Amino acid sequence: MKCSFCGLTIEKGTGKIFVRKSGKILNFCSTKCEKNLLKLKRKPRVIKWTNQHRKEVKK
Ligand SMILES: [Zn+2]
């Protein structure tokens, strides 16, 4: 299971699961990621510390 925001692997028993009204399930490794995505509505690609951002840079 990976964090929906930063892309890091979440260990079993840790992290948070959030279900959107649309039925889409989001996994978060920390409240930091949850806040960034749900409250601040940031995109992982523009946040430096996410795996998704690092992938984009490599390309
Ligand atoms: Zn995360």
Task: Characterise the protein shown here.
The protein is α+β, with helices and mostly antiparallel strands. Helix content is 29%, strand content 14%. It has a single domain, classed as Ribosomal Protein L24e, Chain: T, CATH 2.30.170. The chain contains 2 helices and 2 strands; from the N terminus they run ββαα. Strands 1-2 form a two-stranded antiparallel sheet. The chain is globular, with a radius of gyration of 11 Å. It starts with 15 loop residues before the first strand and ends with a helix. The mean pLDDT is 90. Bound molecules: zinc ion. Residues 3, 5-6, 8, 28-30, 33 line the site of zinc ion.
Task: Summarize, please.
The chain is of the alpha+beta class and 59 residues long. The protein has 2 helices and 2 strands; from the N terminus they run ββαα. The chain has a two-stranded antiparallel sheet.
Q: What's the layout of helices and strands?
A:
Blueprint (H helix, E strand, L loop, with lengths): L15 E4 L5 E4 L2 H9 L11 H8 L1
Bound molecules: zinc ion (ZN).
The site of zinc ion has 8 residues, from loops.
